[in-house]
């Protein structure tokens, strides 16, 4: 990932953050029992998940947790966990690991795991239905249309204008996405996105600043602003570019920062997500925040955004892994 950039000396000081720090110190590690870190999976984000898994495993090991690392590629491997472990740290990103499938199997064998349950995981992975839900609740999310076999794209009925961004409805790490400025590009982008999903989201492009809000146990962590020289924060900007900037503390009025964090928490709770996750937003030139998506199994390396936000409140990467496993005890 790219570099960080500190804007100033604003002190992060919040009693809620102190609660998280205190909890980390008080967890009896032996009560965790045997912990399995699940990584890999079969999705396009497999390599990213392998990186997350290895670092989470090493971090928990450093905290004297009885932990095992497992590269999961089949349902049978999940079923075989029964009786061998007491709880699961899931870092399988994208489809299968983040869309409720793994969660359903773990529920069936009564295995506690980190993160959101089956239903909210499936909903969060579905960008279209997340937006329908947010829209219905009166939360701000960019204008959009859905394209599918039952609702094919039509120039005659298209009214949204340009630019727009085209996305597969269920995919992570910006895979299959393109920004477009013309009808010709739009039709090509829709066909490209269809390679990844039978439903495609065409979303109004928001010009402005991009932020992410990490959430742990109902508490919104400090915002981080993302800046990339790419057209948008795509796969390369996330995982390959050294030019991507992660800016903190953010250069925002405190009231606006609170508004964005409150919106993120509201969006997280409406989806029914729990324990931890990350909400991505855009802020337009009128300082109006727009919800983009919710990630329920975000990246978990020491260079990822949730650990970056946790570090801002004094929680190290290793302590963060401990905290997330601890939430499975509740």
Descriptive account of the structure:
This protein is α+β, with helices and mostly antiparallel strands. The protein folds into 2 domains: 3-138 and 206-329, D-amino Acid Aminotransferase, Chain A, domain 1 (2-Layer Sandwich), CATH 3.30.470.20; 144-204, ATP-grasp fold, A domain (Dna Ligase, domain 1), CATH 3.30.1490. Helix content is 34%, strand content 22%. The chain is built from 11 helices and 14 strands. The chain has helices at 15-26, 46-62, 75-79, 101-108, 118-125, 127-136, 183-193, 235-239, 254-271, 305-312, 317-326; strands at residues 3-6, 34-40, 66-72, 87-90, 144-147, 164-168, 178-180, 200-204, 208-216, 219-220, 224-227, 245-248, 276-284, 289-295. Strands 1, 9, 10, 11, 12, 13 and 14 form a 7-stranded mixed sheet that branches. A 4-stranded antiparallel sheet has the order 5-8-6-7, covered by helices on one side. Helix 1 crosses helix 11 (317-326) and helix 2 (46-62) packs across helix 11. The radius of gyration is 20 Å and the shape is globular. It starts with a strand and ends with a helix.
């Amino acid at each position: 990932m790219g570099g960080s950039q500190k804007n100033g000396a604003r002190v992060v000081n919040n009693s809620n953050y102190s609660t998280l720090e205190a909890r980390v110190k008080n967890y009896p590690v032996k009560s965790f029992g045997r912990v399995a870190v699940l990584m890999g999976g079969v999705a396009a984000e497999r390599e990213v998940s392998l990186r997350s898994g290895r670092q989470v495993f090493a971090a928990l090991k450093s905290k004297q947790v009885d932990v095992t690392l497992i590269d999961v590629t089949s349902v049978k491997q999940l079923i075989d966990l029964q009786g061998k472990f007491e709880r699961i740290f899931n870092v399988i990103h994208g489809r299968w690991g983040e869309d409720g499938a793994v969660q359903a199997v773990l529920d069936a064998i009564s295995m506690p795991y980190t993160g959101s349950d089956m239903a909210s995981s499936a909903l969060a992975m579905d960008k279209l239905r997340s937006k329908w839900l947010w829209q219905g609740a009166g939360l701000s999310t960019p204008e959009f249309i859905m394209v599918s076999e039952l609702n094919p794209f039509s120039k005659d009925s298209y009214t949204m204008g340009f630019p727009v961004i085209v996305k597969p409805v269920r995919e992570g790490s910006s895979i299959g996405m393109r920004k477009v400025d013309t009808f010709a590009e739009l039709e090509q982008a829709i066909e490209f996105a269809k390679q990844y999903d039978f439903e495609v989201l065409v979303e109004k492009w928001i010009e402005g600043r991009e932020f992410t809000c990490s959430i742990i146990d109902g508490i919104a962590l400090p915002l981080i602003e993302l800046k990339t020289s790419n057209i948008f924060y795509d796969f390369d900007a996330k995982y390959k570019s050294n030019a991507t900037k992660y800016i903190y503390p953010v250069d925002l009025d405190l009231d606006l920062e609170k508004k964005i964090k409150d919106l993120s928490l509201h969006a997280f709770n409406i989806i029914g997500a729990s324990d931890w996750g990350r909400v991505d937003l855009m802020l337009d030139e009128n300082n109006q925040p727009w919800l983009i998506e919710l990630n329920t199994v975000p990246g978990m390396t020491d260079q990822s955004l949730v650990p970056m936000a946790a570090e801002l409140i004094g929680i190290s990467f290793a302590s963060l892994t401990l905290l997330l496993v601890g939430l499975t005890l509740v």
